[in-house]
Amino acid sequence: MCCKNKFCCEQMQFHIYEKEKIIYYGTNFREYAIKVTINKNNDSFVLQDIKFCPFCGKKLPKDLRDEWFEELKKLDFDDPLQQNIPEEFKDDTWWKNRKL
């Protein structure tokens, strides 16, 4: 990430926050993906993970999905997707607090 933007470039930031959201950014796992529609009605889609910004080409930060599960396991959450986890793990607070 760089400059005044939260993301690598203004185009990335625009597409993450635009109404159509063609770029998905998952805050709790720090994941980036492109939304790919799979039918002509645009009502069904899949997310394709990306490792580089499609606009400026910069390498995106490593996703933290594995670390999220590991941290919750340390706190005795064996099924965090089905359990009531601490609030800090519901967004980017947990990894920012740990300076990941």
Walk me through the structure.
The chain is α+β, with helices and mostly antiparallel strands. It contains three helices and three strands, in the order H-E-E-E-H-H. It has a three-stranded antiparallel β-sheet with strand order 1-2-3. A hairpin with a 7-residue loop joins strand 2 and strand 3. The mean pLDDT is 89.
Write the layout of secondary structure elements.
Blueprint: H1 10-17, E1 23-26, E2 31-37, E3 45-49, H2 65-74, H3 93-97
Antiparallel strand pairs: 1-2, 2-3
Record keyword descriptors for this entry:
3 strands; 3-stranded antiparallel sheet; alpha+beta; 3 helices; 16% strand; single chain; 100 residues; 23% helix
Q: What does the overall shape look like?
A: globular
Give me the number of helical elements. Answer: 3
Write down the secondary-structure element order.
Answer: HEEEHH
Distance between the termini: 13 Å
Could you report the average pLDDT, rounded to the nearest whole number? 89
